[in-house]
Amino acid sequence: PGCHDGVMDLVFVIDGSKSLGYANFELVKQFVNSIVDSLDISRMGTHVGLIQFSTKVRTEFTLGQHITVQDIKRAVTQMQYMGRGSMTGSALRHMFQFSFSEKEGARLNIPRVCIVFTDGRSQDDVSEWANKAKNSGVTIYALGVGK
What we know:
Blueprint: E1 9-15, H1 22-37, E2 47-53, E3 57-61, H2 69-78, H3 88-99, E4 112-118, H4 127-135, E5 138-144
Helix pairs in contact: 1-2, 3-4
C-alpha cells in the first residue's frame, strides 16, 4: 500500500476503424510513442499493453510482453491499421475481460489505467463495459481523434 511513483498498468485502446482514417491512425501511433517516452517503463515500473479495434479486437501486445521503452515503441510502430468498422464497446469488453487479467500481465494492487483513442463513432454500445471497467477500479481516459 501507499504511493507508487507513477507506477501503473496502462492499456492503450486504439481505434483502427475506416472512419478514423490511416493518417490519423499514424498520428495516434506517434502520440502513443511520445506518451511511452514519458513513462518509467521497467519490470517494477509501469507496464504497457495495447489493443486495436475495428470490427474485431486484436491484442497487439499484453501488459507483460514488453518491459523496455524501445520494445514498446517498436511494437507500436509496426502495428498495422485494420481499417474496418468501429466496435468500441467490444474493445472495452476485451480490455475489461482480458487486458487487465493476471494471465496477460496485470499486477495486483497496481493502478489500472486505460486510454482510448477514437473518433467517437461506435457501432455498438460502450456504456455497459465502460461502467464495468470503471466500477472495477480502472481509470479510463478517452481522447478524440479527427473530427
